[in-house]
Amino acid sequence: MITLEPAQRQAMLGRLSDYFEQELDRDLGQFEAEFLLDFLLKTLGPTIYNQGLQDAQALLQPRMELVLESLYELEQREA
Q1: I need a labelling partner for 37 at 20 to 30 A (CA). Which of 19, 21, 53, 66 fits?
Q2: pLDDT in tens, 44-61
């Protein structure tokens, strides 16, 4: 499960509570918000995390190829 810093966790709990109040006209208590956040982190967190890794890999792959090409160009011919 994804672990959040306490400040991040509190901010997310606030956002969940605000969303439920504004969009669903439902008061979400502290316990309910924490339970829901834990559920979302456990069930959706890994998929979102993995997508972030894939996005980072797609961004870095072409750049790494350029670095490898540059290193290859620096090689000196042996006598």
Answers
A1: 53
A2: 999 999 999 999 999 999
